[in-house]
Every structure is written in C-alpha cells, then in structure tokens.
Automatic annotation (TrEMBL), chains A, B:
It comes from Paenibacillus silvestris. Residues 183-325 form the 3-dehydroquinate synthase C-terminal domain. This is 3-dehydroquinate synthase. Zn(2+) binds at residues 186, 249, 266. InterPro entries: Dehydroquinate_synthase (IPR050071), DHQ_synth_AroB (IPR016037), DHQ_synth_fam (IPR030963), DHQS/DOIS_N (IPR030960), DHQS_C (IPR056179). Keywords: Amino-acid biosynthesis, Aromatic amino acid biosynthesis, Cobalt, Cytoplasm, Lyase, Metal-binding, NAD, Nucleotide-binding, Zinc.
Length: 364, 364
C-alpha cells in the first residue's frame, strides 16, 4: 500500500493506494476517527452499485459501522441540484447527524455530487472518497466538489476536503478500455505540468498502463495524486498556482458542453485541449517539441487529438465565455513552457484561442 | 453611524448601523474593495423590491457599479434549491465572475438564500448584507446561510461570511407591527443569553422600540449585533459556544415546522421556545425569577408565550428529532442559569422536553 498526505494544515488528509486495500476499510476509517455511533451514508451510482456496493456495505457493517446507501443514476446528468436534494432526503431518513460522514463510492460524478452533499448537509459533515475510476485520482484529491447548472458545468459547489481517499486498484480492473484511456489522460496531464521524468515514464509504460498492470497503475496513480496534492497544498482555493491543473481544460470543458456531456469523455476532451495548449505554446515562441511530444503521447494512448469537425466553432467559443476561467474579462490560459513545466498567462486573446480551435478541427 | 467589527481573522468584516446610511453605499462598498469591473447581483424579494430596489440600483449605478437585480417571491418557500438555481441563472446571465459579489437586500429569507448562492456560485464569491428587517440583525451576522429541504429547515447550507453588513434604520420604518415585534424577539434573546443590563434596558424601552424610535432601535440593533458577533468570533463553526444563540430555537423550529412555515413567525416561535427553556431552568433548580422575567418581557412586547393548542405534541416532538441540534442521539439544550447567562446542557431527555411542550400548551 502506498500512502501520501495532502498537506492542508488542520484539513490535511491521507490518500491510500494499493491492490485489495478495500479489505482494510474499517481500519482506515478508524484511523480517520470516523464515528460508529452516527450513521454513514454511502453514495454510489447505478453502474458501480452492482459491482461493489454490496461488498462495501458488508465490510462496513461487519466492522460495526451503521451504514446506509443511496444510488443515483450513472452519468453526468446526476450532478444536479435535484440529485443533491435526493441525497439529502436519504441522509435525513437515515438520521445522519453532524458527526456522520458521507462516503462517495464511484467516479468523478459521484465524488463531486456526494462531496457537495457532504459540504452542504448541515453546513458541512465529513466525507470519504473511494474512487472506482482512474480519472477520479484527479477529482478525489483537492476538495473541489460541485454540481452542474443547465447553463454551466461545476458552477454550484464548494471546497470541501475529504477525511481520506481510499484507492483500491482492484476496483479499477473492470473498467472498460475507453474509460481507462480517458482516465490516463489526467494522469499524463500531471506529468506534463510538473514532472518531465514521469512523462517519459508514461511514454515507456504505455502498454502496462493500458493493460491495467497493478504495479504500474499503482505507481502512476501515486505520482498523479502526489503532483495534484503538492499543487493543492500550496493553493487550496485556486487563487493562483492551482490554475495550472487546468491545462487543457479551457477548450476541454467547452468541447464537453458543446458535444453534450457524455459524447466526449472528460479525459478525451482535455487531451484535445492539451494538444491545443501545446500548439499555443509554439505561437508564444516555445519549442515545437512540446507539441510533438504531447500529441505523440496522446496518440500512443489512443486518445483524440483533434476536435470532431461537426462541432461548431462559434458554439465552442461561446461555451468558453461562460467558463469560470475568465476573470474580470481577461482570459486566463495555461501554456506549457517545456515538458513538465507550465505558466499561467493572462494575455491570451479570444482570437488566438479561436485560431487554435480552428487548427484543432481537422488539422490538430 | 455606529460601526462594529466581527472578528474572524482574515474573514473579519464590519457592520454599519445608522439612519440614512444607504446613501453611503458606494463609499462603504469601496471601503470593502468591491470590484467595479465585475458585475454585482442584487437579490431581493417581491415585497422589498417595490419599496427599496429602485433606489439601491440607482445609487449603485450612480457610483459606477455594474449592478443587475434578481427578485424572488417573498416568503420562506423561496429558501429552496429551485430558487437557488434561479439566482445562479441570473448570475450567469449577468456575467458574474470570481471577483463579483452578491448583495442580499431583504430579511432573513433573502439573506440566507442569496448568501448560500454566494457561498456556492463558482465555489464561493463575495457577499454583502443589506437587511430590511429587525430580525435580520441576527441572521445577517455570523455567516450561516442555507436553504430548506421539504423535510427540514436550513439543512442545506454553508458558513460564508459577508464582506460587510449595511443596516439602514430607515429601511425598517415601513415594517408592519407584527414583523417589528417578531424581530425584537431575537434582540431580546441576545440580552437573555449575554447581557442582563441590556435585558433591563429592553424592559425600560419597550414603547420606544415598538414605535421604532430611531435612536433606541439603532442602539438595540448595535447591542444585538455586538453580542452575536462576540459569540461568533469565538466559535465560527458552531463547535460549542455558538450553540447558546439557539436559546428557544429547539422548540421554536419545531413549532415553525408543525404550524407550517409562516403561520408562526420565527420570532414568535422562539419567544415561546425561550419561555419553555426558562421553565426547564426551573426544573433544573435555577431561580423561578428567570421564567417570570422572560415571560413578562415577551408579554410586554406582545409576543406569544404559549403553544397554540391545536398543534399536536407528537408532531412537535417528531419535528424536533429531525433538528440539527441532536448529536449522536444526545439532545443538546440551551438553558438559562440566570438573566444574561445560559448553559449548554447535553443531558436533557426527550421526556423532559415533552413535558415542557405540554406545559406550554395552554398553561405556558
């Protein structure tokens, strides 16, 4: 089992990564001093429930925890205020109190939704993440939780740190190949923004990662979580540094919105976005190699590197204008300076981004 | 103009109280460094809008602020997730960004709803309170914001401190007498929990307060806000001391829920609750005088001191069981030890509270 700590003063918490560690769930809950007296609510979705819910509930109950569960429909549409209300109904029916915790068992959607429920129920109760996707290595670290509004993604939310993150590699072995690739996109991102050696390692170990080799996957998740936790520790509330985690996300989020959430997976959308940012880096005078390496890596992982041509450029640009990354009219953009290092630029014009979007359509 | 500071480290903020100080709104916004570049959203309700909205908007625009407004229906039912979604729609349409602020112009409902919108929009933007009721002297200080769930009041919310509170006495002069009395109930509460001299002052100045004498009202609001801010400064997130602010609220909230929100005003419900707590104090061996003074004071202010007999005891008790003040099955209760001093007891049994409820029905 690998272990690392997200350093946030009194809100610090551990991340455990390893194969089969779900068996240690009650010991890890005890280490986090979760209450056995107050009810726990396990929130999961309709795809994860048949695979893992029964076992999680059995382990918790065997360990003396008073656990209830709540299942939401799988998919991004569950990140809504109405599902939030449903979780609160379950929490009230189960008798959750201020010493209770909500456990998110699932991918990013479940983590974000259940996390916001924990952040807002009784103005904030404790929260545990048990990710079941590779992508969730990203969303489960850092405390950003949210639901969507029909007009904008992740626009209603909070910063609410979990008590612990329990990442059991075994829960990832049933992931469909498309989800595996899309999840690895964020893993690769953590190399691109922070760690050139890890980027090289990702290049050298593509086959192992795509075939879910437990040792390779455990290492990649460890490094991904570690990079993210270092960044988050230095800037919990995204005042500055944390923005670098958004590499590829400006275009990526717009593509997800325009394609309709679900047509392009998040990891797919940001792989296109990261290729776009690398292209922009070239225009700002940085080495062409950044674009070559970035694009080559995503191609090797079978991830998309160009925008589906049927997506309208005006719609993509308009979706971007609603994005949270615009501050007082100025566009904030994350640009790679070299592999493993990015900068936060505030001088990127809408016109420059439009050109990149055009470039990515067909000729990315 | 009276001024006081709620001391909360980097989240400290000023409260301004005075007659006609709305005219200084842009100077006070400048002092809080609110942005003129980023749009402001003023949230108010359908009762306050015809009285004050036009003037507030005109003052803000004349001062160079980019202000938009959003009006919700008056009444407790607006403290809902669907109204929250509506405010977020307005915020997105107005182009609010991370440097924007939401301004709550209204009573407790508007403050709680708009405050939770500010707490969760983009994971938290800035927030200003302009209370238009006496009761809001309480809700506008301390950063507790929330919406209701069909099964429980204030159950979905956050701690989110405002940048400033602007309390213009002139906005209170149109309040209907029932609202005045109900608002003064929380003012009196602040005396009962913290300040015996102020309790005596309230007894001596009943006529002045009920007739909205500006000098008396300004002083009472100042003391009320001051007591609340001292308590909040010492315990922002209600781990211990802050619970004393809930004097009268355990029974009060249950009465509001059972009577249907609106039949009993909040201030009316807690005046009954405070008489109940004083009765309980007697049973715990404290002086009978507490009950006499408490009841006498509320009678003098024309506030109810007994439970309407048609409200069912079982329903009241069941509503209480859903309340947030139950921690791990134990009942937490605020009991006066003398006038101006209360204690937090954790040993109050459900049976003792039921007896008090029965006593308050007809023989309070």
């Amino acid at each position: 089992m690998r272990e690392l700590t997200v350093e946030l003063g009194e809100r610090s918490y551990p991340i455990y990564i390893g194969q089969g560690i779900l068996n240690d769930i009650t010991a890890l809950f005890d280490r986090a001093k979760l209450s056995r007296k107050s009810p726990l609510l396990v929130v999961t979705d309709s795809e994860v429930a048949p695979l893992h819910l029964e076992r999680v509930m059995a382990l918790l109950r065997a360990g003396g925890f008073n656990a209830t569960s709540c299942v939401v429909p799988a998919g991004e549409t569950s990140k809504s205020l109405s599902q939030l209300e449903g979780i609160v109904t379950s929490a009230l029916q189960a008798g959750l109190d201020r010493s209770s915790a909500i456990v998110a068992l699932g991918g990013g959607v479940v983590g974000d939704l259940a996390g916001f429920a924990a952040a807002s129920f009784m103005r904030g109760i404790r929260f545990v993440q048990i990710p079941t996707t590779i992508l969730a290595h990203d969303s489960s670290v850092g405390g950003k939780v949210a639901v969507n509004h029909p007009m904008a993604k992740n626009i209603i939310g909070a910063f609410h740190q979990p008590e612990l993150v329990l990442f059991d590699i075994d829960l990832l072995l049933t992931l469909p190949p498309r989800q595996v690739k899309a999840g690895l996109s964020e893993v690769i991102k953590h190399g691109l923004i922070w760690d050139a050696a890890f980027t090289q390692w990702c290049d050298d170990n593509t086959e192992k990662l795509l075939s879910l080799d437990p040792e390779a996957l455990g290492y990649a998740l460890y490094i991904g979580c570690k990079v993210k936790s270092i960044v988050v520790s230095q800037d919990e509330r995204e005042n500055d540094l944390r923005a670098i985690l958004n590499l590829g996300h400006t275009i990526g989020h717009a593509l997800e919105a325009v394609a309709g959430y679900g047509e392009l997976l998040h990891g797919e959308a940001i792989s296109i976005g990261m290729v776009g940012a690398a292209k922009l880096a070239q225009q700002f005078g940085y080495s062409e190699e950044i674009h070559e390496v970035t694009k080559g890596l995503f191609l090797k992982y079978g991830l998309p590197v160009s925008i589906p041509p049927h997506l309208d450029t005006d719609s993509i640009m308009s979706a971007m204008m609603h994005d949270k990354k615009f501050k007082e009219g100025t566009m904030v953009y994350i640009i790679p300076m070299e592999i493993g290092k990015v900068e936060i630029r505030k001088d990127v014009t809408v016109e420059q981004v439009r050109q990149i979007v055009e470039l990515l359509k067909g000729r990315g």
